[in-house]
Amino acid sequence: MSYNKVILKKGITFHNINTNKFKTNLCAVFLTFPITYENATKDTLIALMLKRGSKNLKTREEITSKLAELYGAEFDCGIDKSGDNHVLKFYLESLNEEYLPKKENLLEKSMEVLLDLVFNPNIEDGKFKEEFLAQEKNHLEQIINSKIDNKAMYALNRTVEEMYEGKPYGIYKYGYVEKLQGITAQNLYEYYKDLISKCKIDIFVSGDNLDIKEILQNNAIIKSLNDREPEYVTKGSSSNENTEKFVEDKMDVAQGKIVIGMDLKLQSEDEKYWAQVYNTILGGSANSKLFQNVREKASLAYTVSSNYMRLKSNIFIRAGIEIENYEKALGIIKQQLQDMKDGKFSDEDIKQAKRTLIATINNIPEEQDIEISYYYGHELSGNNTTVEDYKNKIENVSRENIISVANSININTIYFLRN
């Protein structure tokens, strides 16, 4: 496997991952820009509208037909938050030419379709198609309203909202129902044009024996795009200063949800690797202290785990419990945090955590989309760690490093969803 990147234009980067592990080529376009409360809903609608068709492929039926011509290629898109950024992600997967019945440049054709869908929207009279927009606004309203259906994710989102109230990271990635009414086919298209002229653009191609730099440099769509000074941030806002702020929501639920949002005071890039090992010992695996003590020994939780958010230097502990067990569960969770500060974990705990992390790292080159996400993360953070270096940095984390992370942690917000 080899990875390299080329600046096609200022603010537009091509990333080439040459790998012989797959029978497919995966092309991706990522549009990155600051997330705002005013525009988050528009961002999601743009992704939905671009998925509906382009100047050359005006309907879903035409897109499906074109993908069938490309030997059953698959197109998809999504939206994500990365730090204080909103990211629109578009993917097109097609067969590698080596597996075609006859020789043809399927990769070039696939990339042309992908770029067409992202940068050549289906426009009528200088605006998005009214009928499609009405349908997608209804669709988006259902998506936003359905966020309460997954209670565990709802509880996590509410905790993030509380910790980052008034700040970009606290914004819900799909936007807000109250913003839908003011969005028209005209102002959405004007916003799209402004977005495309300013956003950071990353184009990824993963596959075997690929070199399409010249194809992209000569592509009419790429040539038509202007240089830009991308308005994106790597980390952005920190959480609001809280000391165990408590938030309780009531809903018709059979099971309570605890989320504890914590801040980490890390001073260097290396400490982020220490935090990964710390988190895995704390709640990142079935051997973790939280799982073993809260769920297995005390039988106080149906589920319990912790997740480390690298870009924001936060750890979130999440537990699903019987509502009457709240105080007991919270007490045992806090005891595990104290035990980590006191160094009450074994050398075997450290070894198991490292094995768990390295198994995950080894899986990065085994999935094309995961590998693309890995290098996209590097692009945003400015970190150029190879997979092998990544494993070495995990292996080199010491007991003292883990205790140092433990003692840098502050509980910011305790959230409880109950009936």
Tell me what the structure shows.
- The protein has helices at residues 40-52, 60-69, 106-119, 130-145, 151-163, 185-198, 213-217, 220-224, 270-283, 289-297, 326-341, 347-362, 368-381, 387-395, 399-406, and strands spanning 2-9, 12-18, 24-34, 74-82, 85-95, 123-124, 127-128, 200-207, 245-250, 256-264, 301-309, 314-321, 409-418.
- It is α+β, with helices and mostly antiparallel strands and 419 residues long.
- It folds into 2 domains: 2-224, Cytochrome Bc1 Complex, Chain A, domain 1; 245-418, 2-Layer Sandwich (Cytochrome Bc1 Complex, Chain A, domain 1), CATH 3.30.830.10.
- The strands form 3 sheets. Strands 1-2-8-3-5-4 form a 6-stranded mixed β-sheet, sandwiched between helices.
- A hairpin with a 2-residue loop joins strand 4 (74-82) and strand 5.
- The model has no long low-confidence stretch (mean pLDDT 95).
Q: What are the main properties of this structure?
A:
single chain; 419 residues; alpha+beta; Cytochrome Bc1 Complex, Chain A, domain 1; 2 domains; 5-stranded mixed sheet; globular
Question: Layout of helices and strands, plus pairs?
Answer:
Blueprint: E1 2-9, E2 12-18, E3 24-34, H1 40-52, H2 60-69, E4 74-82, E5 85-95, H3 106-119, E6 123-124, E7 127-128, H4 130-145, H5 151-163, H6 185-198, E8 200-207, H7 213-217, H8 220-224, E9 245-250, E10 256-264, H9 270-283, H10 289-297, E11 301-309, E12 314-321, H11 326-341, H12 347-362, H13 368-381, H14 387-395, H15 399-406, E13 409-418
Parallel strand pairs: 2-8, 9-13
Antiparallel strand pairs: 1-2, 3-5, 3-8, 4-5, 6-7, 10-12, 10-13, 11-12
Helix pairs in contact: 1-4, 1-6, 9-12, 9-15, 10-11, 11-15, 12-14
